[in-house]
Amino acid sequence: QVQFQESGGGLVQPGGSLRLSCAASGSAFRLYDMAWYRQAPGKQRDVVATITTGSNTNYADSVKGRFTISRDNTKNTMYLQMNSLKPEDTAVYYCNAQFAWGAYWGQGTQVTVSS
């Protein structure tokens, strides 16, 4: 059973920065790919960034150049550094891993970008 716990969300002004963390349970963190998703009110949940076991990364066009995904396998933790935040980045952010038998999600952390 894999469990994720997100943290680091909050209220930030436009142009500001936040760093989200996703702590994973278990000893196999280094063996699976991870992703960050977000869901704004009334909208579907969309992928923001992905990172493979080899730390290859991919980003949604809307966050390229502003967000950076990373992982520290020694700490069983994935990160999302978010810079130059915009009001349209406001959403609940979730960490995710996909397996052949299903997907695992954290409970989410709220990010609100507002002046």
Global geometry:
globular
Strand percentage lies at: over 45%
Computed Rg: 13 Å
- Helical residue percent band: under 10%
Describe the sheet with the most strands: 7 strands, mixed
State the end-to-end CA separation: 40 Å
Q: What is the chain-wise order of helices and strands?
A: EEEEEEEEEEE
| Mean of pLDDT | 96
Structural class, please?
mainly beta
DSSP helical segment count: 0
Which runs of at least 5 residues are low in confidence (pLDDT < 50)?
Answer: none
- The number of E-state strands comes to 11
SSE map:
Blueprint: E1 4-7, E2 10-12, E3 18-24, E4 34-39, E5 46-51, E6 57-59, E7 67-72, E8 77-82, E9 91-99, E10 102-105, E11 109-113
Parallel strand pairs: 2-11
Antiparallel strand pairs: 1-3, 3-8, 4-5, 4-9, 5-6, 7-8, 9-10, 9-11
How does this model look, in words?
- The protein contains no helices and 11 strands.
- The chain is mainly beta and 115 residues long.
- The strands form 2 sheets. Strands 2, 4, 5, 6, 9, 10 and 11 form a 7-stranded mixed sheet that branches.
What is the structure about, briefly put?
The chain is mainly β and 115 residues long.
Question: Could you list some keywords that capture this structure?
Answer:
115 residues, 7-stranded mixed β-sheet, 4-stranded antiparallel β-sheet
